[in-house]
Design brief:
- The complex is a heterodimer of chains A (379) and B (266).
- Chain A is mainly α.
- In chain A, 70% of the residues lie in helices and 3% in strands.
- Chain A has one domain: ABC transporter involved in vitamin B12 uptake, BtuC, CATH 1.10.3470.
- Chain A starts with a helix and ends with a helix.
- Helix content of chain B is 37%, strand content 28%.
- The N and C termini of chain B lie far apart (54 Å).
- Classes of the chains: A mainly alpha (379), B alpha/beta (266).
- At the A-B interface, helix 1, helix 12, helix 13 and helix 17 of A face strand 8 and helix 7 of B.
Amino acid sequence: MNTTELLARHRLPGPHADGDERMRRESLVSRLLGRPEFASLAGAILVFIVFALSAGDSGMFNLDGVINWMQVAAYLGIIAVGACLLMIGGEFDLSIGSMIGFAGMMVAIPTVYFGWPFWLAVLFAFAGSMLLGWLNGYLVMKTRLPSFIVTLAFLFILRGLTLALSILFANRTIVSGVGERAAHDWLGQLLFTGNVGTGLFSWLARHGWIATVNGGAPLVAGIPKVILWWALVALAASFVLARTRLGNWIFAVGGDAVAAKNMGVPVRQVKIGLFVFTAFCACLFAVLQVADFGSAAADRGLQKEFEAIIAAVIGGALLTGGYGSVIGACFGALIFGVVQIGITYTNLSSDWFRVFLGVMLLVAVLFNNFVRRRITEAK
Amino acid sequence: MSTQHDKDEAILELDQVSKYFGPVIALQNVSLRLRRGEVHCLLGDNGAGKSTLIKLLAGVHQPSAGQYLVDGKPVRFQSPKEALDLGVATVYQDLALVPLLSVARNFFLGREPVRKLFGLRVMDMDYAARTAKEKLAEMGIMVRDAHHPIGTMSGGEKQCLAIARAIHFGARVLILDEPTAALGVKQSFNVLQLIHRARERGISVIFITHNVHHAYPIGDTFTLLNRGKSLGSFAKDRITKEEVLDMMAGGAEMQTLMSQLEGIQV
């Protein structure tokens, strides 16, 4: 028996010109369901509808209201982007909130008590935070412990250090007086304090197209820089994730680290890099907040790690890694902003905010689970 | 197709190779010659030393004694990457595929094609999808959409993807670790056909299996391992399927087992 001939006779059908008979045309809904952002987009639309109906006439959707909740969304959005990339890479960072507090102090104490220029303190805070992020990542990779445990330790270490060191250096837990220095510093002025588009807004106000206060100045002076930072960080992260080699590696190390390693992906460097990026996002949050509030406080950023992770999960990121979307996480953050601020425009007690969050998280996780099964188990 | 002269030349050869792990003798004086463009089946029951042999060939382990030659030159691989650089690629059972990633992204995992976009280096997704689809089509596998996650593919298709990927990235020698072990009848047949296609393209294949029914139709040469020792290599025209089966399981022992089973009345 000649096997070569036998196999040749049983050759599989070659490429079809008319497509694959096993390929079914998917409906639009079905295709949308396959996108990680879908749930958060639908959630955001739903939330907008609910608040438009219940608080539409309260001023929530006036320019000042919009800026108000956009600002809340932007702060959260910045750390949600970091948390989202890290989760896609298969890891968690529970120390984001504590890092915000710690980084804030790294800016405020040197500025106010050591007389450093603001820009130097900012660079110091970024360097310090990213070094701590690296340490987080290094320990996770070195010990092979779950990142959940390692970063939980840092949640406490950093929060404790923030309190202890601010007492040690400043003898208080709220360090104020940074605002003035930040506003007069070239770097602070350029990147962190104030608004963008003030000229445009005053021009609009002069023509009576936007609301003004009694002097004729616009009620909303401009777009807070935090919103632009959010857009910048989100766009850059989306781009990297979707279009670059690094993005492919991030998905791969989260999806199956062993397979990625076998194919030559530098798993360790990618994961540690993601921890550093998350710390960068936390520090950016802190610097913007310190510049805006004019002070740092030891309890800043409390529970922000959970909010960031929730936003990422609502945005479609899987807890097991390997799947998710930066744009989704941004919609998650937007839902947060709208609900947190919107609830104050309604008659509801703001205690309901947390209830809403929990329910939203639960629904999102259930939905993501469904999506994952659809992707990986369809035959 | 390679000439007769090339055919006689071994692309890869193990000469009296032994491997010890402390007091354990995993392999003893095993010799194996892989000729260019042949499918060489490595058969053995569980515990025969197949896995150790694969790891030696792949560059994960180094032999404790004996010589490993590629293209007639002695080599001593320090890592699997060195073996890969010489075109010796191993497709393990876990396949090194990420289920949530698309076909295209998996195909180029770790070796992503890049192009310039506004001065930035981005992944060339169109090229990746097109190439992955083409290469798989050459192997007789139709991909519905190269941007779909491979989680939706069958075990056989995944196996084929891993093999096609190794071939695309310049494998001259393919070492396949039990590629049909977890597959159904039809999928196994597809994989066997893929091995046949690889041979047609001049790629030499080491096909590790304990399934004689898969090995015999496709193989040109059979090497049998038993308890760390080679029972010899046999060209197909010099051995029958029954003889292979007998040698693999230890004929007499198998006969006894079979008769015991037949004696059972249900």
